[in-house]
């Protein structure tokens, strides 16, 4: 009898695996407004023209928002720094969302996030994300959307860390994400909560500029809330402060809320970090 039960279980698993494998990704669905337009990049030397830059403006929490998409131009020769962002939205430290923001000279920023692309009426679920239920979307946007959405509209803790990569590597990482975004525009792929999520995809792109920097099997690669600890241990985040203190002072939640209407809110968030790092806060 136990042998028969094992056989039934194996058959059930095989059928489930077959059903999952038969699913095919698509860019043609009824998407939520904030997932409606995938980005498309045109690269010509240092000149980047990026279509589908998201710049949603949010009101009070719980109120409707309007999806806004823009075409913007960037000078890749002006790439300055990379910022790593961790959004904490769960009591479980390991459960979080990560994204990055590219800083250009002149105080210009371009945020990037790899996400599960949601359809109308759909919400994200970690377990469903294991079985080809969500397409993968690369999204580029304004920091007022990508960061203030989380600090103000969703009232989440958000940690903003400057990384130690030199400008040349930051540019290489940006170019690699843009090329992948272009491939997804024509050839969609599925998102996966463990193997193709917001954090381990950043590791894939980082490995292009620093080969072997991140191993896919590390728990921090699959659990976004632990990723800043990994970067700290590797020296990608400034280590002059103990991590617990660093984690505290790099939280920009209240700065984002205080300066939400300031057109220079990105600089305001970073000024606060510099004050703390100098021991003046």
Question: Brief overview, please?
Answer:
The protein is α+β, with helices and mostly antiparallel strands. Helices cover 35% and strands 22% of the residues. It has ten helices and eight strands.
Helix content: 25-40%
State which percent range the strand residues make up: 15-25%
Low-pLDDT stretches are 15-20, 275-281
State the total count of DSSP E strands: 8
Number of helices: 10
H and E order:
HEEEEEEEHHEHHHHHHH
Main sheet overview? 5 strands, antiparallel
Structural class determined from secondary elements: alpha+beta
Query: CA-to-CA gap between the ends?
Result: 68 Å
> If you average the pLDDT, what whole number results?
89
| Order of adjacent strands in the largest pleated sheet | 7-6-5-4-8
Q: What does the radius of gyration come to?
A: 20 Å
Count of the domains: 1
Morphology call:
globular
Attribute tags:
globular, three-stranded antiparallel β-sheet, disordered C terminus, alpha+beta, 281 residues, five-stranded antiparallel β-sheet, 8 strands
General description of the model:
By secondary structure, the chain is an alpha+beta fold. The protein has one domain (about 25-275). It is built from ten helices and eight strands. The chain has a five-stranded antiparallel sheet with strand order 7-6-5-4-8. A three-stranded antiparallel sheet has the order 1-2-3. Strand 4 (about 80-90) and strand 5 (about 95-105) form a beta hairpin. The chain is globular, with a radius of gyration of 20 Å.
Give the helix/strand layout:
Blueprint: H1 2-21, E1 40-44, E2 47-54, E3 69-75, E4 79-88, E5 96-104, E6 108-117, E7 135-141, H2 143-146, H3 148-153, E8 157-162, H4 167-186, H5 200-209, H6 219-222, H7 227-234, H8 243-249, H9 253-258, H10 265-277
Helix pairs in contact: 4-5
């Amino acid at each position: 009898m136990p042998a028969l039960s094992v056989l039934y279980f194996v058959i059930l698993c095989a059928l489930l695996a077959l059903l999952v494998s038969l699913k095919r990704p698509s860019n043609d669905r009824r998407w939520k407004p904030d997932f409606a337009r995938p980005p498309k990049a045109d690269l010509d030397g240092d000149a980047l023209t990026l279509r589908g830059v998201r710049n949603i403006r949010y009101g009070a929490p719980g109120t409707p928002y309007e999806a806004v998409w823009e075409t913007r131009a960037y000078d890749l020769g002006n790439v300055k720094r990379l910022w790593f962002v961790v959004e904490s939205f769960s009591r479980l430290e390991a459960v979080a969302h990560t994204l990055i923001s590219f800083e250009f000279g002149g105080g210009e920023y371009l945020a990037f996030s790899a996400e599960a692309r949601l359809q109308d009426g759909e919400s994200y679920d970690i377990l469903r994300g294991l079985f080809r239920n969500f397409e993968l979307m690369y999204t580029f946007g304004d920091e007022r959307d990508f960061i203030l959405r989380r600090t103000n509209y969703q009232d989440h803790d958000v940690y903003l860390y400057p990384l130690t990569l030199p400008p040349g590597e930051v540019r290489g990482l940006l170019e690699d994400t843009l090329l992948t975004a272009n491939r997804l525009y024509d050839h969609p792929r599925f998102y996966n909560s463990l193997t193709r999520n917001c954090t381990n995809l950043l590791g894939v792109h980082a490995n292009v500029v620093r080969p072997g920097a991140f191993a896919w099997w590390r728990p921090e690669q699959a659990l976004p809330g632990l990723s800043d600890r990994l970067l700290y241990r590797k020296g990608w985040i400034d280590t002059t402060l103990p991590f617990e203190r660093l984690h505290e002072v790099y939280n920009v939640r209240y700065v984002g809320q205080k300066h939400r209407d300031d057109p220079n809110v990105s600089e305001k968030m970073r000024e606060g970090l510099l004050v703390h790092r100098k021991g003046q806060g």
